[in-house]
Amino acid sequence: MKNRIKDAFDDIRAEEQLKDRTREFLSAKMQSQMQKAQNIKARNQMETAQTIQARKRRQYGKWIAAAAGFCFMVMIFAGYQFYFSATAVISIDVNPSIELNINRFDTVISVKAYNEDGQDLAENLDVRFMKYGEAVQAIMDSDAFAGYRSEDDVVSVAVAGYDEKQQEKILTDMEFCAAAEKNMYCYYADGDEIAKAHEAGLSCGKYRAYLELQKLDPDVTVEEVREMTMREIRERIEELSSDPDDSSGSTAQEEGAGQRNGTGQRNGAGQRNGAGQKEGAGQSGKGHMHRRHKGAE
User: Are residues 97 and 175 both part of a single domain?
Assistant: First the structure.
């Protein structure tokens, strides 16, 4: 470029001093323009770099925000699961059969009904998010619960769960509560019993009563027990436990003495005379056999 300018000036006829000044002016002008061009280029490069960095920062910020949001959601979900996970169950049975699910903070997180009366009771009471002691007391004091309970009705309270310390504490508190109530009984049930009870569609308390009744009446079914009140179940258990016919029948089957050998229960010698099955039954049996032989002769 400079050579072209020089060649152009060589063809011009003018004073050397004027040529020099003109040449310097044009050279300075060109340098200025070149400097501006370089500045613009540098500025563009800088802006481009800044733009790229800003874009990276924005993307990085988005990733950070997304990660933070994800962590926050995980924490909320974990906290929800932690709070709303039942670690213990309080089963209350009269005829209404309900269960209070208790979390690790001793708070009622849900109420589950196992029959129609239980559903009605659960709908008339709002004990969620109460401490379990307050919830049980509110149930016992409620008019809705009183409507299902008479003086002779038995209230069964079963405590079950997966945290042994919490179970012991709840059971102790329930026993203290039962001391102020009439015909209220508390007992412990384990985790397996909870699972089996729920599989049968029964509350823990009614399932325990069902097992007790089943020992005395093997033919009883879950469906029958589901429709019975706790009072009816208890009366049936007492009836079977104190039934003299069942007792004598069992003795006859175990001893095997009477009907086959002719030695006794039909003669009434053993049990009624109080002489014992060994002596009384033997004597009576001998007499009976002797009379039969004598008559035959």
Answer: yes
**Signed CA dihedral, 224, 227, 230, 232: sign only:** negative
Cβ–Cβ contacts within 10 Å for residue 264, how many?
Answer: 23
Among the candidates 196, 216, 241, a domain finishes at 241
The total number of residues shown for the chain amounts to: 297
Strands 184-189 and 155-161: parallel
CB half-sphere exposure, 221, CA atoms < 13 A: 3
In the block, residue with structure tokens 């019975």 = 228
pTM attached to this predicted model = 0.58
**Which has the minimum average pLDDT: 217-226, 241-250, 264-273?**
264-273
Q: How confident is the model at residue 245 (pLDDT cuts 50, 70, 90)?
A: low
Distance CA 134, CA 56 (A): 57
Contact (Cβ atoms closer than 8 angstroms) between residue 179 and residue 208: no
Residue 105, domain extent: 88-241
Residue carrying the six token digits 């003109």: 22
Neighbours of 167 (CB within 10 A): 21
Q: Are 290 and 267 in contact (CB under 8 A)?
A: no
Q: Is residue 12 part of a domain?
A: no
Instruction: For the chain, give the longest Cα–Cα distance.
Output: 184
